[in-house]
Amino acid sequence: MPRLLVIDDESNIRFSIEQVFEEADLEILGAESAEEGLALAAEYNPDVILLDIKLGDRSGLEVFRDLRRDNPKSLVVFITGHGTTETAIEAMKLGAYEYLVKPLDAAQLQQVVAQALEIRRLMHVPAIVEEADRPEDLPDRLIGSGPAMQSVCKQIGRVAPQDVNVLILGESGTGKELVARALYHHSRRCNAPFLAINCAAIPEPLLESELFGHEKGAFTGADRRRIGKFEQCHGGTLFLDEVGDMAPGTQAKILRLLQEGRFERLGGSESIAVDVRVIAATNQDLDALIEQGRFRKDLYYRLRGVTIHLPPLRERREDIAELAHYFLFRYNRQLGTSVQSISPEALEVLERHDWPGNVRELQSVIREALIVSAGVTILPEFLSAELHRASVEPEPEVETSAIPHLDWKDLITSVNQWIAEGQTDVYRRAREQFDRLLVVGAMERSGGNQQRAAEILGLSRVTLRARLRQMQLSVQKRICPTGDATRPDET
Asked: Could you tell me if 31 and 6 are in contact, meaning their C-beta atoms sit under 8 angstroms apart?
């Protein structure tokens, strides 16, 4: 259960805050002095701390420095009177999360604490961990023992300790936020703040204010100075999700910040220096956006210190069973269900689906199956109807003779040609042709026998069929040496 620590020398304030969160799933600790608050923080390591700006003879800034030293990942929200907001703003420059002005508004207090708890969860829960004793005890993880995800995990391991910006590319639902959190947890900045912001969910004027902050009077409704995410995140990591949806004006300001390490708040003239590692992610084709003039090429190169491509789930079907069981154990505990397994028939239905919503869609499917299932096993009938319709779609029929002959020399020739032409996606093109060479070679070697070809490649039969569909090379019959037409083994 998350913990909230309230450090305030006014007992009525502490009581009022306890009443506000009476119905919340939250453990609340109270302290009436700086010394008591620091002792409770050291003993219980709270997720969020509400700190009065004036505690007897000690200032909030002094207490805040002690808290940051001993509890670097606890998020501190200052409670301040009208006359001391400047002190709270100074604290925010040093890394405080937010400040609230007395008298406290219950709805605003709940919203700020809820946001802080979610950010604390992102900072606290690892995205890559060692295996635990029980699957249901596992936190958020990057799941996948197949080659595609193992390659991603190796990239994370190499890149995380390096203090460079990272661009994560992948379709919606592939787990880009998990990769960002893994990079943070394994970085040198892991004890500094980690903040995330969805660029597509916030209108442009508000997004600039969220990122850079604003001065009082900068625009209508700006009744006080606001410290933005870049300033709050000084020394830490900022995750910009859906960066491809960012407006041109905001792109220009972020470019300047990445180039110079400085920015101004909206409506301000003070140049502020920050040290922030930026991890950006998008599901859009940035090359196409650049050609359309909707994304700055210079910002693209600044963001992509290193690029990590997350494969869609349909390209790593060998991980579906592992993911499905992980979500099974995870949601068993949350929903109070007691399903123990997934039947082989249900797994085959899952592996045949193309998953346009990727891992997020699979997550939803397993949760729904747990709710409607009867018994201890998920059967095919407990899966949504869309999956069954997809699993019986006929494969396109192609004669064995229709498989084009490919040579490994063609790959080298193509790569040299793409580089000479100045193509920017050579890695993706080369990998696609490499996969094609392997699959076609195995199918030729097995005489069209999909089971045998899958064994040669070390893939499941379902995964091989998926690769064949992607390449539009689904083999339904072969020509034997005797000239008789027979079907390849489909068992």
From this structure: yes
DSSP per-residue letters across 84-118? GHHHHHHHHHTT--EEEESSPPHHHHHHHHHHHHH
Q: pTM (2 decimals)?
A: 0.63
Spatial separation of the C-alpha atoms in residues 79 and 108, rounded to whole Å = 12
Q: Are 352 and 390 in contact (CB under 8 A)?
A: yes
Q: At what angle do helices 60-70 and 85-93 cross, to 10 degrees?
A: 20
Structure tokens at 309: 């491509």
Residues 6+ apart with CB under 8 A from 91: 53, 60, 61, 64, 76, 78, 99
Please compute, for residue 207, the number of CA atoms within 13 A of its CA located in the half-sphere on the CB side: 22
Strand order in the sheet with 48-52: 27-31, 3-7, 48-52, 75-80, 98-101
Quick one: tokens of 223? 């009744």
Q: Which two tokens mark 153? A: 């995990």
User: In whole angstroms, what is the distance from residue 491 CA to residue 476 CA?
Assistant: 13
Distance between CA atoms of residues 401 and 143, nearest Å: 38
Read off the pLDDT of residues 40-87 as tens digits, 9 standing for 90 and up: 999 999 999 999 888 877 888 888 888 888 888 788 998 877 555 556
Phi-psi region of 382 (alpha: psi -120 to 50; beta: other; left: phi over 0): alpha
Instruction: Render pLDDT for 232-250 as a digit per residue (tens, 0 to 9).
Output: 899 999 999 999 999 999 9
Which residue, among 5, 8, 13, 80, has the nearest Cα to 49 in the 3D structure? 5
Is the separation of the CB atoms in 463 and 311 below 8 Å? no
Q: Tell me the C-alpha distance between 225 and 86, whole Å.
A: 9
Q: Residue 286 — left, alpha, or beta (φ > 0 → left; ψ -120 to 50 → alpha)? A: alpha
Of the candidates 460, 446, 479, 468, which has an alpha carbon nearest to the alpha carbon of residue 395? 468
